[in-house]
Amino acid sequence: MEKTSSKPKVVIIGAGFGGLWAARTLAHQPVDVLVIDRNNYHTFLALLYQVAAAELDAEDIAYPVRSVFWNIPNIDFILAHARHIDLQNKRIETDGATIDYDYLIIGTGSITSTFGVPGVDQNAYFLKTLEEAVTLKNHIICCFEGASREMDPARRRALLTFLIVGGGATGVEYSGALAELIHGPLRKDYPQVDFSEVQIILLEAAEYLVAPMPGNIRDYTARQLRDMGVDIRLKTAVAEVMPDRATLKNDETILTNTVVWTAGVRGEKLADASGIPVGRDGRVAVEPTLQVTNKPNIYVIGDLASIKEETRILPMVAQVAIQSGVAAAKNILHQIAGQSPESFRYADRGSMIAIGRKAAGVAIGKWTFKGLIAWIMWLIIHLFNLIGFRNRVMVLTNWAWDYLLYERAVRYVFPSRMPGSHYSSCSPGRPEEQDRAAKEK
Fold it and tell me: Whole-prediction pTM value?
C-alpha cells in the first residue's frame, strides 16, 4: 500500500546509473521518491562483459537497490515492470500496481538494436543484462565441452568459431576477454581440443574499431587484439544469422554456433509505448532542461534521452546518465521551489577501454594513455565506481587471481543444463527459447 503524504511525489523509472543518482540527489529533500525497476538490483554494466568471459561472478557487479536507500526515509522502491504511462492522468501502469506521480523521471535505458537483420533475435547472443551475460558464459564453456568430443570436423569448427558483431567498446572488450579466457584457462581445461582450430572473429561495419576514441587509441586497440589472435574485419556487415552459421553482406558464410551481437542499441520501449515522441533510434529528443516537450513534469535521462550538445548528440555512456540524473532531480527541486529549470551542461570526463591484461586506452580531453598505465587507471576508476564494499573486494580478488595465476574463477555452467546430445547445449538462443525448443521435441 502506498504512503499518503502532502509532499510532491517523484517517481523514477529505472534503477540504473541515472535513476540511482537522481534518487540520491533527492534524498532528504521535501519530496517523496519512489524508484521502480523490473529488477531489485543495480547492474554495473561496464563490467558485464567480464561476467560473460568467466572473469567475474554475476553477483560481483550487482547490488540490491533497497540496500542503496535503506537509511533514506523519503525514498522507497517497488519491484515492478512499468508498461505504460498515462500522460493525461499522471499515472504509471505496471504489471502490478498503478502508481500516481507529480513529477516523473524516466531512466529505463537502452536495449539491443538488431537493425532488422534476419535471425539475430532468434540466433544471436546479447550482452545487455546479467541473464544474457551468464547465458553467454555458459554457452562458451558448453561449446568447448562439445568440441572436446565432437568427431565431425565441420561441427567442431563451428563450435570453436566465435563471431562478435560490433567493434564498439563492448565488442572490443569482450573480444579481448574471450581471447584471454580461451588461450589461458580453457587451454588447460581442454587438452584434447586442437586450439589451432579456434577462431575469434570481430566484425565492424565502419572503418575503425571504437570509432569515438582518438586515432592513436583506435590503432593501438586493433594491434593489441590482432596480437591476441582476434581476426578483425572492418567494413564488414552481417546479412543473416542462422543457428549454425552467419552470412555476411559480401556473400561469405561463416560456420559458427556463436554470434555475439554488440552492434548497436536503441532506446527502451516505454516512452514510445506511452505516446512520448521518439526518434528512429527510440530515444526521446528532450529539451535543454531534460524535460519532455510540452510535459514539464516529465524528465528523460541517460540512454533513453537524446541530448543535443552543440552539433552532437551525447553518447550512451554512464557519465551522461549520472550527470543527467542529477540535473533532472535538481530541476524538479527548482520547480517545487517556484524556480525555472536549468539547462543541462555535460562535463566530459573522458573515455576508456580495456583490451586485455595490461592493455587499455584512456582519453581525457587532449590527453591519451595506452598500455599499462591506462590499464591501471581503468582498474582504479571502475573499482571506485562500483557500488558496495563487498562488490569492490570480490572484483579486486577475482582480478588479482586472474592476473597472478592466469585463472578464471567462475568457469562453471550454472544453472546446469542436461543436453540431449553432447553439443546441443551450444544451440544458439536464450534459455527460454532453448526450453521451448526442447518441449517441442
Answer: 0.90
